[in-house]
Amino acid sequence: TRLYDVCDYYDAESLLTRDERAVLGRLRSFLDEKARPLLADHWERGEFPAELAQPLIALDLMEPAELTGAPDGDRIPARGIYQGFRIFELARTDASLATWYTSQAGLFRTAIRVGASAEQQQEWMPKVIDFSLKGVFSLTEPESGSDIAGGLSTTARREGDTWILDGAKRWIGGAVSADVLAVFARDVADGQVKAFLVDRQAEGVTLEKILHKTALRMMQNAHITLNGVRVQESMRLHNVNSFRDVAAMLRAMRSDVAWIATGIQAGAFEAALRYVTERRQFGRPLGSFQLVQEKLARMLGNVTSSLSLVVRLTEQQAKGIYRDQDSALAKMQVCLQMRETVALAREVVGGNGITLETDVARFHADAEAVYSYEGTHEINALIVGRALTGESAFTR
Ligand code: FAD
């Protein structure tokens, strides 16, 4: 039997092994039974359902693709495509759950994989994978978002074997419950961007939860102030020597967001399809009207083309091909389709499309955060434009 019989028209799931599908099936059951009933209430309250974290980790979801050359015990080696479907399955249920997962399994893991030396990786990576070292990616600043490469103004000053960090970070997902913050700062000596693992509890670190969000309300974001924070040289990520190394991380992580945006579409489309099958007007199901069927076809077309695109991108990345423009194009294009899909889903559900009861409203609201994070539409378009023309339109 197919896992994605409704939203995966061209059978991308056939690329998965039977074992991989079995884990995804267990994830599906857990999400349906334990997570779904909590979503609307936690979204409304702006709280993450903390009780889901440990059971999700226990489902062996955290094992990242690159580290699993050989199966370890009963574990299934995590191939890129399987990793993508794990993100897809989570996002199909809820965008905050998927973001929570990729914050550790994507952002933080990538910071360590790309940024840490071999010895540092040996020490930290097992803890990243089993979630015993929870970390977050602290790049964006209050005054610099899209412009972070040139505008990054948090400073790092070296005194012997200690670094002193000063500055502020904004929007950092999951920081309030993390053990460490991967903080990017500019070395005052050589002007280059370096990275540090900062204990969240360290003296001089202040975290403020960002309130009044209208998207991804379940996932917490923090405003972080760093005031004379002392970090040992051993906690510096030794392979980060300039912003180029940060760009390499972003390049690898953007495909995760494209998978999230694809999963959101699948979730919204399936919820809308259920609704139009059940709801009747003019004595007939909504789904029997031509204008409604046209919207269903467009939603399915978007999901199908997004899924085809992320599958192909992931196959390329599995071969070691990581070009800026490839993941930028995917993030941009899939997010455009996501915005249309959630809007169409919201339309066919009518008034109930603005309550949390049908799931559609949550996907519709959350999509806006995904549209903006990890490179806005414009910035990803400019990365593609630079590759096409050889002209950079956004340098300072
Ligand atoms: P701005 O850079 O101020 O941009 C505003 C608008 O101007 C956008 O439409 C943008 O595209 C446009 N614009 C900017 N420059 C140009 C240009 N040259 N040409 C054309 N248009 C332009 N950051 C982290 O480091 N870690 C995280 O964990 C994290 N999580 C996040 C979670 C959420 C929910 C959100 C909303 C953000 C998160 N971010 C995180 C930050 C995110 O990456 C930034 O919001 C994003 O990079 C955009 O920056 P900005 O919001 O400052 O917008």
Automatic annotation (TrEMBL):
Keyword annotations for this protein, in alphabetical order, are: FAD, Flavoprotein, Oxidoreductase
* Gene Ontology terms describing biological process: fatty acid beta-oxidation
Which co-factor is required?
FAD
Q: Which GO terms describe its molecular function?
A: acyl-CoA dehydrogenase activity; flavin adenine dinucleotide binding
Can you give the residue ranges of the Acyl-CoA dehydrogenase/oxidase C-terminal domain?
Answer: 246-388
One family name in Pfam for this protein: Acyl-CoA_dh_M
Q: Does the keyword Glycosyltransferase apply?
A: no
Question: Which segments constitute the Acyl-CoA oxidase/dehydrogenase middle domain?
Answer: 137-229
Limits of the Acyl-CoA dehydrogenase/oxidase N-terminal domain: 17-130
Similarity field: Belongs to the acyl-CoA dehydrogenase family.
Q: What is this protein called?
A: Glutaryl-CoA dehydrogenase
List the source organism: Pseudarthrobacter psychrotolerans
